Every structure is written in C-alpha cells, then in structure tokens.
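Teaching assistant here, posting this on the class forum so everyone can see the example we discussed in section. The complex has two components, and the goal was to see what a joint structure prediction looks like when all of them are supplied at once.
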Amino acid sequence: MTGQVVEKSASSTAAAVEWGTLVAQIKTGDDAGMEQLYKMFSRGIRYYLCRQLGPQELDDKVHDTFLIVVNAIKRGDLREPERLMGFVRTVVRRQVAAYIEEAVHSRREQADLETGASVADRKQNPEQEAMIRQKNELMRSALEALSQRDRDILIRFYLKEQPQEQICREMSLTETQFRLLKSRAKAKFGEIGRKKLTSSGIFSVFMRAKAG
Amino acid sequence: MERARLFLTYMTQPHLDHPDDEAIERFAMNRCEHDEQEAIDTHIIGCPWCVDRLEKLQDEILDIKVGGTLFLRSQAARKRSWLKRWTIPSLSLAGLAALAAALVLLTSPHDVNLSAYRGSEVVTVPQWRPLHLHLNARDLDAGPVIVQIVDDRGMEIWKGRSTVAQEQVDTRAPAVRNPGEHFIRLEDGDGSVLREFAIEVKLFP
C-alpha cells in the first residue's frame, strides 16, 4: 500500500462503534442510541445536504433526514448493522433527489405567478461587509509575502486548478517536490494569514461569529 | 478501485479508516476518481472529525483563492498603470519632446574638417544639418576667397565669402538637402578654383 493513509482519529468519538448495539437501541427507541446516532451523523448529513442543496432551510432538512433514517431503521430496512454508514448515505442521497425534484416542480408551477416576489437580501450588514473586505485584503497581502515560487504553486493549483502534472512540467518539479512545496506553502500562507488577522483584530471577531 | 482500497469501503471501523490529507483535498476540490469519491462520501456521513477537516480545508482553499484573485488583479492594475504612460496623451507629449530634440539637433551646425585634396579622402557629412566648415588652406595666400558647394554634376548648391587666415578657411554653410557626393571649392575673386574637397552627404553618416 503506498503511503500511510490509515490514521486514528484524535477526537473523543473515535471509540469503536458497536453497530449491532446501536441499531438495536434505535429500534427500541432508546434515547442514548438516538443521541449517539445524532452525534455521529448530524454533522455529515448537514455537510452533505449543504454541499448538494445549499444553506436554505438546512436545519429543517437535516432534522427531516435524520427522522427518515431513524424510521427506516425501526422498520427493519437495515439488514446488516455494520452497513449503517452506507445505509445512511443512501437515504440522504434519496432525500437530496427528492428535494431537487420538489424544487423543480414548484419552480415550474409557480414561475408565472410570482411576479415581483421579494427575494431576501443575502448580503451581510455593512460592518460585516467591511470586515470581510479587510480580511480578503489581508489574504492578498499574506500571499504577497510568500516567495514567488510558493505563490505560483498555490495560485496555479488552488485558484487556476491546473493539474499537478502541468505544474510540475512548467515549474520543473518532481511530484515529490511539488507535494512538499505545496504543503509548506499552504502552511506558510496559513501562518502569515493568522498573524495578520490577529494583529488586525478581525480574527477574534470572525472566531466569535463562527462559534455563534 | 485502487484509491478506494486505501481505506475500507464498508466503513466497519470508521475510527481507523479516515482518508489522508491528500484524499480529503482531492475530495474538497472535486478531483477524486469515482470510487474514491463514493468511499469518502460514505465516510464523512458518519465522521464528524473528517467533516471538520474538510470544512477547515475548504476555508483555507477559499482564502487562497480570494487572496490569489486579489493579488492577480493588483498585478494587472499595476501593469495597466505602467502602460497608461504610453497612451496617446503621453505619447503626444513624448512625441513633442522628441520633435523638439530633433529640431535642436537639426538646427545646430555640424563641424566639418576638410584637409585632404580631392580624390584622396572623402568625409561624410549629415544631410539636413547646417555645416560649420574648417577647410585646410595651407599654401594659399591669406585673403578673401569664395566658398562654393556643388553637387556631383557640378550644379551649385551654395556660394559664400570667407577669408584665408592662418592656413585655414572657416565658414558656415546651410544644410545640404540631397544625399550623395558633393564638392566644396575654394575660388579666388576671378572664379579660379584654388582647392577642391569631396564630401559624401548621407542621412545618417
């Protein structure tokens, strides 16, 4: 096997899961089981739904999807408890398809009626907009602080999305050199960016916003 | 299936089977092959730790993209600002300056020292520039002389008066407009040629 790709999680939820026990708890409506199921899957379901459908009404969709999973388990739709993750993923995918179909249907039905419908302004307030602009400028200056080679690698790979082979060819790098340089450049960029954010006072504001 | 073999697809032990940083990055940038995509998709559904890694990575990538976009824009703006110096108003000013310099150059006389007899040496002089002639007059009697410039057919271009002094004739002549071989003649009051010099007139000598 090339490279070390199996690693242990550092989080407290890393303990081995007894799938059979968990599924049995769900079937009996045990609160502990429901809680563990929610703790394990709510983040992933939220991420998946947001990635596929966007942030609109996300909490409701996560909740609905979770209920569908629980009810499916209670019905006995899951035959092999150790396949729980794949099962949840299948349920979530079907939910995504259902939401998309519903959105297409309602758009088709309502297109002619909704003239002059109001649309929520998704912009932040002026203060937040100013902070975002300032943060973006700090990111620009953090990139400028890198060496030209480091900057080129990051811009080519992440912004221009050039394939690794092209970058290696045009910058005369081996694959190993590229991976090493990219990793270091990203780390340097992150460090410079954090320092700039901290010294500007924006960092703590952004951290509060994320936690809230 | 090669990459998916790197971690178990059935996810029986999610606390062991986390995709490595490069696989997470490929997933975040939609660069996974199909099997790897499916495997990571399934894994993150039930792994809050990997969702955290993914979200953190996506924030980092977004920062790089935003910083990179603004950086490239600022570079392009600097280039445009440099190029603006070469716009038409600036070029007009530059053109005027060049024209002024050319006028100064063209109106200032070009020094021509001629000391050889005809046939032995040809001096090149610039076209379109007034000439300040210093003609060797050794062995000639001091006194007034006539200075004449003729073209290669003997047609007179210009005639003026000067004096032989200290074996030299100094005089100013207007610019020669046509290129080619010309002759400068020193004549006495009777029109007899006392000495003749050859010059080659060129635009860029």
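For the discussion questions: Residues 4-82 of chain B form one domain. Residues 62 and 68 of chain B are 10 Å apart (CA to CA). Think about how each of these relates to the inputs above.
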